[in-house]
Every structure is written in structure tokens, then in C-alpha cells.
From TrEMBL:
Its EC number is 1.1.1.49. PANTHER family: GLUCOSE-6-PHOSPHATE 1-DEHYDROGENASE (PTHR23429:SF0), GLUCOSE-6-PHOSPHATE 1-DEHYDROGENASE G6PD (PTHR23429). It catalyses: D-glucose 6-phosphate + NADP(+) = 6-phospho-D-glucono-1,5-lactone + NADPH + H(+). The active site is at residue 251. This is Glucose-6-phosphate 1-dehydrogenase. Residues 17-198 form the Glucose-6-phosphate dehydrogenase NAD-binding domain.
Length: 508
């Protein structure tokens, strides 16, 4: 396709995807690259090589990916004519990543691309494989000369990054022996979401919010990331993980950092990451003996959701029938610094919940003096900013208004910015599109630095350790289709608040 868009494409790049035959590649990575191709964001000189032990010829691999794009791409209707051109960039390399001998095939491919492109491309190794394989692959890649070329070689590491603080530190140590920090891209796909990136725009491109973005005006903050799906075939992975490791250590703490961080001086990657890591370091460490007062865990039982019978977590494939793994977690955090002292940050996440919704709520304090008669309103705390990340994509500012009529009756109303109304073309790139483009461009702003991963593990480790030391006696403790265990309601009700949810979107 010709480059009719007015933007610079990234330099020549070759992406080797370990896990080319796997789920992430077909569900997210290839659809993302295809969309970048359609939007003319791929480099002029580009190649993607899928790697795996499964046997594929290039053509059968492309056929497999074609079906995946048909199923998973947000632009599945745009395959005719374009797919053929895109698929010319795609090839497959059958190899066992545990066999050092086979790595020469990668060097040969890189050489062939150099000749084809007439220049040395960026060489990107995307490790879309089980976490246990990551250290081994990283080490074996390290033995290739190309990895020492800090100008152009990058490695992308998927989550989970380590299983706990110790293993994450070991992995960071290992990677640091082979790569410079700016060659390492630890991916957290939430950071690639449009609505998440917009938090920085909302906070730091407007003069309006910053003066009130602190403990003087904000009563509390809530972050909910609820999913209606259960673990659905990922029991093997989830049994080693649970909600805290799967969602809180990474995605939710990153959202919290974006709400909590100080204003950056520039958008340079390390500046943003410095500001975020400051927040992580300031989060009060929950003492093991106090975990019960600050954190709640849950596991879904069997039951019914939307008139369909659903399995309980313990009945899922590859799950221990007596599993103590949590599919729900709620935690109250505090950030000990000048901006946030004593402002609670309530976070919760769970599977098999009532509604798919990721929202951040900033609840402002009540007006200092209330001049209206008491009967004018039933809430004195009307000011609230709600950032809906998905599936709705909007920002709502709630304030008190006078209801038309002869009496002074007040009720809360919402001023709403909706992405779909404001940007009618409706082509928000998916997170992986943004992040893959960032890797090709060498922009690590939205990726985790080693110290961020480390600091995030330090925040959750006391909870993990306390929970592992004291197996739950009440699991399963919430019904699918609910909002989680009752104790999660109690966690926030003790402070006189409720979890905020928005009405489910109206479906035509
Ligand atoms: N799937 C998803 O939606 C998401 C996944 N992730 C993360 O991405 C990573 C991959 O997940 P997913 O794609 O679901 O996993 P899959 O099990 O679907 O894929 C694993 C891949 O690893 C390859 N592999 C395994 N052993 C070897 C080996 N010795 N040599 C070469 N290739 C090997 C497999 O290929 P073969 O069998 O052909 O050798 C396969 O392509 C995980 O870390 C996961 O946590 C993160 C977010 C979402
Ligand atoms: O990383 C993960 O995220 C997904 C949720 O991602 P989303 O973009 O659909 O919100 C979650 O289902 C999965 O368990 C977790 O590993």
C-alpha cells in the first residue's frame, strides 16, 4: 500500500515471535500488525517470523493466521485484497527454543533480511511463550552476536514478569547481563490502551484538574477491573497466578500510578517511569498481620450467569478441586506522600463478575459549606470524575444541578466526554498495535522498567505471603454474576463508602 498518511514510519524492522504458533500471536499480535499495515504504520522494509516447534510451511502458517485475523481482528471486514500484501511479510521458522544448536537459523534469517533490505534492520525478539521458557530463550539469544548490537536489537517480555519478587529480580538480573535496560521491553498491555494513555492527557494537558488533584479535594479513589469471563481453559496458568499476580501487581498498580504520579517534566520514557516508580515506592506496605483489614480475596462458585449455567473455578480444566487460588481481589492502598496522605485507593478485580467494566473513580470531597436547605439534595458529595476504560470509553464529571421547577431541588448530573461521539471514525488502535509500534520506534515510555516491576512486587508480596500462609476457609465465596464476596463490600463500607459501578451499556 502506498503511504498516503502523513506520518513517519519506523525504521526497517524484523520481528521474531517466539510462540508464533501460540494463542497470543493469533489473538493479538498478528491482528495488531495487520492493522498497523492497513494504517500504513509498518516500516517499508519489514518482516515478521513466527517461531515454534509445530510444523508449518510458510503458506500454511499464513493460512492459519488469516483465519485468526478473521476471528479476532477489529477490522476483520478488511481482508480482501490487503491480506495477500501483508502476508508477504510473514514467514515461519520451525525450531525448538530449548535447543541452542537451532539458534543459528535466526542469525541466518537476519543476514538474509539484511541483504534483502540493503541495511541492518531493528531485530526484535518477542517472547510470547510460557514464563518458564523466558530465561532460557533470553540466555540462548544472548549467545548470538546480534543481541550485543545495542543499536538495533530489542527483546519484548510478556507478563507475568516473574512469579514473585525473588524470581522477578532473578529474571531482571539475567536480562541485565545480556541486554542494556533500553533494549528490554516489559509489556503491560493496559498501558497501550487509548483510554489509559488519555489519563496523562487529562491530567497534564489541562490546567483545570491539577490544582484539585490532591488530598485537599479528593476523598478517595477507586479502581475496578471486572471481567465476566472465568478462567476458560487457562486453568493451568491461573493456578500459578490468581487475581493479585494476574491483574493487581501489573495492570491495576499501573493505573494507580497514572492517577497518583506527579507531573512529568517531559514525555521522555525515563521521566514518565521515574514519576510512576515514585508512586509505587510510596505505597504503604501492608503488614502481614494487617492484611485481613486491607485485602479481601474471593473465588467464584458454580452458578448461573445470564441464564447460562457456568462452572465454578474449582471445576475448571487443570484446576485443583480444592484450589485456594483467588479469582477476586480487593485491596485498600495508601500512598504516603504529600499529595495523597490519608486518601484511600480502593482497587478490586475479579473474574465471573456481574459486568465487564474497567473504571476509575475520583471522588471529591463535599463542598465546605452547604447553603441549601437540607431537603434540597440527598447527597452532599456529588462531585465525581469517572474514567471508563472499557468497554465504555468515556469520562464523566458529575456535579450537582438544580432540577427545573419552583423548588430548590438538586440532583447530580453528568457531563460526558465519549470517545465515540467525539472521534466518530471509531478507529481506536488496540493496545498491542500501539505497543508494537512503540517497540519498532524504540519508545519505551509505556513499558515497565526493571525497578517498576520490582517495586510493584514489593507492594503485593505481603498480601501474597499472608494469603499463602493462611489458606481460605470459605472458598468458593461468591456467585458468578455477582460483584464478588460480601467482605469486599464490607472493606469499603467500613469507611462509609460504596463501590461505584456504572449502569450496563444499553444494547440495541
Ligand atoms: N493468550 C493471551 O491472550 C495472553 C497471553 N499472555 C502471555 O503470553 C505468553 C504466551 O501465552 P499463550 O500464547 O497464551 O500460550 P500458548 O500456550 O498458546 O503458546 C505457547 C507458545 O510457546 C511455544 N513453545 C513452547 N515450547 C516451545 C519450545 N521449546 N520451542 C519453541 N516454541 C515453544 C508454543 O509453540 P509450539 O507448541 O509450536 O512449540 C506456542 O507457540 C504467556 O506468557 C502468557 O502469559 C499475556 C496476555 C494475554
Ligand atoms: O493480562 C490479562 O488481562 C486480561 C484482561 O485484559 P483486557 O484487556 O481484556 O481487560 C485478563 O483476562 C487476563 O487474565 C490477564 O492475564
Amino acid at each position: 500500500m502506498s503511504n498516503s498518511n502523513n506520518h513517519n514510519r519506523p525504521p526497517a524492522s524484523v520481528i521474531f515471535i517466539f510462540g508464533g504458533s501460540g494463542d497470543l500471536n493469533q489473538r493479538k499480535l498478528i491482528p495488531a500488525l495487520y492493522n498497523l499495515f492497513l494504517d500504513e504504520w509498518l516500516p517499508e522494509k519489514f518482516a515478521v517470523v513466527g517461531l515454534g516447534r509445530t510444523h508449518y510451511e510458510d503458506e500454511t502458517f499464513r493460512g492459519h493466521l488469516y483465519e485468526a485475523v478473521q476471528q479476532f481482528s477489529r477490522r476483520k471486514g478488511e481482508l480482501n485484497g490487503h491480506w495477500k500484501d501483508f502476508s508477504n511479510y510473514v514467514s515461519y521458522l520451525q525450531m525448538d527454543a530449548e535447543d541452542q544448536e537451532s539458534y543459528h537459523k535466526i542469525s541466518e534469517r537476519v543476514k538474509a533480511f539484511e541483504e534483502q533490505f540493503g541495511e541492518h534492520p531493528n531485530v526484535i525478539f518477542y517472547l510470547a511463550v510460557a514464563p518458564q521458557l523466558v530465561p532460557d530463550i533470553a540466555t540462548k539469544l544472548g549467545a548470538l552476536n546480534i543481541c550485543k548490537d545495542t543499536r538495533c536489537t530489542r527483546i519484548v517480555v510478556e507478563k507475568p514478569f516473574g512469579h514473585d519478587l525473588k524470581s522477578a529480580q532473578e529474571l531482571n538480573g539475567l536480562l541485565a547481563q545480556i541486554y542494556d535496560e533500553d533494549q528490554i521491553y516489559r509489556i503491560d498491555h493496559y498501558l497501550g490502551k487509548e483510554t489509559v494513555q488519555n489519563i496523562l492527557a487529562l491530567r497534564f494537558a489541562n490546567a483545570l484538574f491539577e490544582p484539585i488533584w490532591n488530598r485537599n479535594y479528593i476523598d478517595y479513589v477507586q479502581i475496578t477491573v471486572a471481567e465476566t469471563v472465568g478462567v476458560e481453559g487457562r486453568g493451568g496458568y491461573y493456578e500459578q497466578s490468581g487475581a493479585l499476580r494476574d491483574m493487581v501487581q501489573n495492570h491495576i498498580l499501573q493505573l494507580l500510578c497514572m492517577i497518583g504520579m506527579e507531573a512529568p517534566v517531559s514525555f521522555e520514557a525515563n521521566e514518565i517511569r521515574n514519576k510512576k516508580v515514585d508512586v509505587l515506592n510510596a505505597i504503604r506496605k501492608i503488614k502481614k498481620e494487617e492484611v485481613q483489614s486491607y485485602a479481601v480475596r474471593g473465588q467464584y462458585s458454580e452458578g448461573w450467569m445470564q441464564a447460562k449455567e457456568v462452572k465454578g473455578y474449582r471445576q475448571e480444566e487443570k484446576v485443583d478441586p480444592h484450589s485456594s487460588i483467588e479469582t477476586f481481589a480487593a485491596v485498600k492502598f495508601y500512598i504516603d506522600n504529600w499529595r495523597w496522605q490519608d486518601v484511600p485507593f480502593y482497587v478490586r478485580t475479579g473474574k465471573a463478575m456481574h459486568q465487564k467494566t474497567s473504571i476509575i473513580t475520583i471522588q471529591f470531597k463535599r463542598a465546605p459549606h452547604y447553603a441549601f436547605p437540607p431537603e434540597a439534595a440527598d447527597t452532599w458529595r456529588p462531585n465525581r470524575l469517572t474514567i471508563s476504560i472499557q468497554p465504555e470509553m468515556d469520562i464523566r464529571l458529575r456535579f450537582q444541578a438544580k432540577r427545573p421547577g419552583q423548588t430548590m431541588t438538586l440532583n447530580p448530573v453528568d457531563m460526558i466526554f465519549s470517545y465515540h461521539d467525539a472521534y466518530e471514525d471509531g478507529h481506536e488502535p488496540e493496545a498491542y498495535e500501539t505497543l508494537l509500534l512503540d517497540v519498532m520506534e524504540g519508545n519505551a515510555t509505556q513499558f515497565m522498567r526493571a525497578d517498576q516491576v520490582d517495586a510493584a512486587w514489593k507492594v503485593v508480596m505481603p498480601i501474597i505471603e499472608a494469603w499463602e500462609a493462611r489458606p481460605p476457609v470459605d472458598f468458593p465465596n461468591y456467585a458468578p454474576g455477582s460483584w464478588g464476596p460480601e467482605d469486599a463490600e464490607a472493606l469499603i463500607a467500613r469507611d462509609g463508602h460504596n463501590w461505584v459501578t456504572l449502569p450496563a451499556p444499553h444494547k440495541e
